[in-house]
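Sequence design from tokenized structure. All designs in this work follow the same two-part layout: the structure record, then the generated sequence. An example of the structure record is given first.
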């Protein structure tokens, strides 16, 4: 259903990027990036688009890892997690994110279709290194349709650890952003699911981070103020508390050549990056997307400059 919503639209000339940044790989189609810095390495965790040319829906079975030591060239490490890693799941390896726990292990939160417990769920796997191997950490969904106050669509987890060690997770779609604290075990909710306030036109794909004491939440929006019908731009909001209330700050990435988009914003070796996806690779499309990245720059007042999409 989500795919159908995004299936057809034309880019208006005004909002279309002049060119698309180079993909991190052209060996496979990749989507929904999450970024993690560990040591001197930038890791990107992505989904894989396997739709045939002209396909009209997502075909996504596993999640892949890429790494870079310079923020420019990436090494592929193959599929490190798949739908079959979760015995309770059945399909749809949608957006994910990896967070390091206080125990030094790496927790990979995923959107995945349940084989019984709900449509889309949040699952979590764990591994001892950024490359895994990863195994199901909970034996069932962390979030499902039966979770009190769950989102209308339980997808797109972003997990953030504050300076005091408290871990938060945000997720959702169809304008249903949700958030909850996680216990130090990284796999159990710590308190109720809440609905953050003040996040204008939230659609999906939240990405949470903190800079200079301010909390930032970037996300895909698809309102007419920033994108053509059925396309997305990336808006962002700031807050002085991790659960809000949030203040909308504007568009940080205009719409791209794919209907969906999904941000990861990270500092690596002193340079900030916007990691996202588009349909720019050869043979690409709305269901054959490619992850790419561009440099992101800050204004003195803590707002983000709109990302310039380059030719890479
Ligand atoms: O890739 C499948 C879904 O499309 C993701 O979960 C959303 O963020 C959007 O990119």
């Amino acid at each position: 259903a989500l795919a159908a919503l995004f299936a057809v639209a034309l880019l208006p000339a005004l909002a279309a990027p002049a060119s698309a940044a180079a993909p991190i790989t052209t060996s496979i189609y990749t989507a929904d990036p999450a970024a993690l810095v560990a040591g001197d390495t930038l890791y990107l965790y992505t989904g894989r688009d396997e739709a045939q040319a002209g396909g009209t829906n997502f075909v996504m079975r596993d999640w892949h890892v890429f790494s870079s030591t310079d923020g420019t060239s990436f090494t592929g490490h193959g599929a490190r997690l798949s739908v079959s890693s979760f015995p309770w799941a059945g399909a749809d390896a949608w957006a994910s994110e990896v967070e390091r726990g206080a125990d030094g292990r790496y927790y990979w939160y995923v959107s995945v279709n349940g084989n019984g417990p709900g449509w889309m769920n949040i699952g979590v796997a764990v591994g001892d290194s950024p490359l895994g191997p990863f195994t199901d950490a909970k034996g069932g969904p962390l979030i499902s349709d039966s979770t009190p106050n769950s989102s209308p669509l339980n997808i797109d987890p972003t997990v953030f650890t504050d300076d005091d060690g408290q871990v938060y997770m945000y997720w959702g779609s169809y304008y249903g952003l949700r958030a909850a604290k996680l216990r130090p075990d990284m796999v159990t909710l710590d308190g109720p699911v809440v609905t953050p306030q003040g996040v204008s036109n939230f659609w999906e794909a939240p990405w949470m981070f903190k800079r200079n004491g301010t909390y930032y939440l970037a996300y895909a929006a698809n309102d007419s103020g920033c994108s053509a019908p059925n396309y997305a731009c990336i808006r962002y909001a700031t807050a002085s508390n991790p659960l809000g209330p949030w203040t909308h700050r504007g568009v940080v990435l205009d719409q791209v050549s794919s209907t969906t988009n999904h941000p990861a914003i990270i500092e690596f070796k002193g340079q900030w990056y916007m990691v996202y996806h588009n349909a720019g690779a050869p043979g690409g499309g709305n269901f054959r997307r490619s992850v790419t990245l561009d440099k992101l720059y800050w204004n003195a007042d803590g707002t983000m400059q709109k990302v310039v999409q380059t030719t890479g």
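The pocket of beta-L-arabinofuranose is lined by residues 31-32, 47, 58, 94-95, 111, 155-156, 204-205, 260, 262 (CB under 6 Å). We note this feature because it recurs in several other targets discussed in the main text.
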